[in-house]
Amino acid sequence: MQTINRLDDLRKAVDALKIGGKTVALVPTMGALHEGHLALVREARARADHVIASIFVNPRQFGPNEDLDAYPRRLATDAALLEAEGVALLWAPTVDQMYPQGYATNISVSGVSEVACGAARPGHFDGVATVVCKLFNQVRPDIALFGEKDWQQLAIIRRMARDLDLTQPHANAIIGIPTVREPSGLAMSSRNQYLTDAERDSAAGLSAAMLHAIAAINAGADIGDTLARLNAQILAAGFVSVDYADVREADTLETITTFSGQPARLLVAARIGNARLIDNMPV
Ligand code: PAF
């Protein structure tokens, strides 16, 4: 596996991988890799001739009081994991390569970026859309894979690809991979490292409460009543606060107040200890 951190080197290496019409899959990450990331890489390998993974802790998607400095960085360990999974190229740019002196462009996807995590983390999804658009232009992959754990991020990236007429990758080639969970049900996340053992046990209550809520909605319970019960259950499990717990239309993320079988997701963000955890499931 080659590890590259300069854009001119990346372009040459990508061109070499594409010789003979070989296809390339991109798996964008911020590192601190876990089984969820490795599931993306495995699926990418099954779908393309070569896999390129990126590791870049993107400062533009962290708010002023967020965990940019504390975010786990362990490039050597991550590189070994990616190499063992058969990744051809690791793109690990520096901040200066990604945002050179004078950088001034921002991509903002309105609507779908403004609710849920977008309301709680102003500017976060502009940072995500901007860096993902740059990664797409840098690598020009045939397909790109993202975890469904960040459902809103996936919806925003698809919206951006449609709106900007992207072709490398095309919006339909942006592939979501189901969330990988611990045996307890806790969705895997690089931020789970912030949890103590006791908090990790409590955090497992989130997915259990969400499954109850989904069962209730599917059995015809009122969405407002169900979400109120869900909030109470999440707090009873040991979370200190619930940022949001909403049922939303799967693509637009518009709020759903009456469920009639339309594509829908239950999305939750809640705080426990020093961590803000997010999770989502289909209704
Ligand atoms: O999901 C992530 O790890 C990041 O938001 C992404 C897509 C790599 C952009 O920085």
From TrEMBL:
A Pfam family reported for this protein in Swiss-Prot or TrEMBL: Pantoate_ligase
One example GO MF annotation: ATP binding
The protein's annotated pathway: Cofactor biosynthesis; (R)-pantothenate biosynthesis; (R)-pantothenate from (R)-pantoate and beta-alanine: step 1/1
GO CC field: cytosol
This enzyme's EC code(s): 6.3.2.1
Keyword terms: ATP-binding, Cytoplasm, Ligase, Nucleotide-binding, Pantothenate biosynthesis
Positions bound to beta-alanine: 61
InterPro entries reported for this sequence: Cyt_trans-like, Pantoate_ligase, Pantoate_ligase_C, Rossmann-like_a/b/a_fold
One GO BP: pantothenate biosynthetic process
Family the entry assigns: Belongs to the pantothenate synthetase family.
Additional note from the record: The reaction proceeds by a bi uni uni bi ping pong mechanism.
Name assigned to this protein: Pantothenate synthetase
Provenance organism: Novosphingobium hassiacum
